[in-house]
Structures are given as structure tokens and as C-alpha cells.
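Morning F.,

Quick status update on the modeling queue. The single chain you submitted on Monday has been processed. Sequence for confirmation:
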Amino acid sequence: MTSYELLQMFVLLLVAHALADYPLQGEFLAKAKSRFIPVPGVPWYQALGAHALIHGGAVAWITGSLVLGALEVICHMLIDDLKCGHRISYNVDQLLHVMCKVLWVALILFFPALP
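C-alpha cells below.
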């Protein structure tokens, strides 16, 4: 994969992240995903899982790797849970999400046959 293709992939991952974290998340998921302030009648883990699955699907689609998509789901859930519990700030949350995208591209660079 060329450096231009890797850069293009990274930019697409950032665009997909912005779409998934803002318009595709919406107010409902933003509130319902918190186990610390639950929405009555809505299991927080389902909302958090759905939100993370949107992110993971985008990563898998862009990278062509189900492994990276699954890693994104796990990492996104952990990072968002830390943010919802006020253990990290909004800005640290966003930085960690971007660093995950850097890691995915690096893994593709060093392991091009990643499934």
C-alpha cells in the first residue's frame, strides 16, 4: 500500500469517526450509552454497543479488516465508558479515538495481510 493510500485511509477513518460520533450517534445514544446516568428502560450496554458497532463497522469497511473493526468496537466501548464515568475528559476521549485510527493504519502498514 502506498503512503498516499495510507494517508487517504487515515483521512477516511477520521471522517467516518466524525460521522459516527456526531450525526449517527444522536442525543439518544449519547445519553443512553452511559451506565452512570442510565436512561430508564434502556440497557446502557446495548446503547454503548450499538454506538461502538457503528464505529467498528466503519473501520472494517474502510480498512477491509474485520479484525480492526472488532478492535475498534472494543476500544471505542472502553474509551467512551471512561468518558461517561468522568475518568477522562471529552478532549482526551477524542484524542484516544484518533490515536486508535493511527494504530489501525500502522498495523496495516506493518501487517498488510491483516484479515
